[in-house]
Structures
1.
Amino acid sequence: MGGGLKLMIAMGTVGLVAVACRQIVGIHDDGSPLVDASDGDLGGALAYGLALAPGSCRACIESRCCSEAQRCGSSKEPACSALATCELACNGDARCRSQCTVDHAIGPVSSLPALEACAATSCENECNLQCGGSLAYIPPNAADKCQQCATVNSCSEFQACSNDAACLALYRCRYACVTPDCATACDSANDAGIAAFNALASAGLSHCVQDCQLGDDFACIGHVTWPFAKASAIDITLHVRNYSPPYAPVSGANVKLCAASDTGCVTPLDANGVTDANGDAHLRLAKVVDLAPQVFFDVDSPTFTPHRFYPGFPFSAPNARLIQEVAILDKALYASVWTQAGFPAPIAGRGHIVIEAALFSQRSA
């Protein structure tokens, strides 16, 4: 094959790539957008990929994030195209980006985090992505105040997560969860992003809890759909620790898994759970019942008060680890803690019930 023909083929390939990327980000050859996506209405643009309005953000995505835009804008992931187009059309407006996440609730999407990370890393100024843009997961009515707080107090942590596709994948996966075991399954599937995600969460909880309404978004009330079980049997790990500082794990506690209908736990579903040195008890739910909170845990130890823990949600992840720890009291401290809480002194020979309600964020409600 002659050198001239090889050069023509190479040039032709480069030209096709350039045209393809322009079409994927929604650009005609004359520079005009395929559709006007400024109002979030994609119309028929999904077949062409991302429909970005003219401007510096579109030009940057075209030149620096072409492959990421191509994967997101492909016909295989129309949900990615819809959400990415909506977010990038916001020109960095925090409330607008948050509303996009609500309007296009798509859960984990394989190609979206890579595009978002590229935009944060390479097009932050052009797309006006303050602190990288990961504030898109905040409730819309709190987004502006949250962005102001994050910019002052924890911008570096938000930026680090925004630049990390693994952190964004974990963030988006957790955002789509309605049960704690789903969230821990997200951690296992996206472990490369845990360090950056934990740093972001720690910074947010330290400085911006109220401004960002962390754990206080109740828009899901009346709209929760329990997930179906992803396996016929589920392995469950329950962590047990001492209620009192230094909150040491409790070893040697007996843990039984009981059906919710078996209030006395006469016939345990699994009676073989014993906490190890790390305070973890491993149990198996051999028959999964969909769409109902179906079990409770009975925890007993010679040195601690008996404890029952009702998760209040159906298990769905094949390997469920409960981040919500079961805190149980040393019998010697029971009376003093009971009194400090403002309850009447415990009556000898009688049982007592303490009920605590907690938000999904694990803060008391």
Note: Residues 260 and 295 are 5 Å apart (CA to CA).
2.
Amino acid sequence: MNEKKIRIFALAKELGIDSKELIQHCNDAGLDVKSSSLASITPDERDVLMAHLAKVRTPASVKPDEVVNPARDASAADRVGRVRSIRTLGPLGAIRRRTRDEDEPAAEEPGPVTAAAVEIPEAGPP
């Protein structure tokens, strides 16, 4: 009885599936396997697992070459908001600030402010 055991992670890599998915398939096939990718199965258990995978994976359901394009919902166009335009900026040295002339016309500039003399009465003792 010198059977070489097979690690779950190695078999998963060989089959091109995730090891956790392979452990789930082992449980579905009725094999008692630890939930670790380092767990091992015998060649007989591997044969049982491969037979189970052959039943589960039908040729019609597995088409790796087929590209799936999502269908666009007709009502999705109604939900699309306003498209914002993207303003392109030149090189960093070309950034300039707007002047007051480019903004709204400013109101008349007030004249110079002068300080008026204000008398402060002296307060008596508190």
Note: The mean pLDDT is 75.
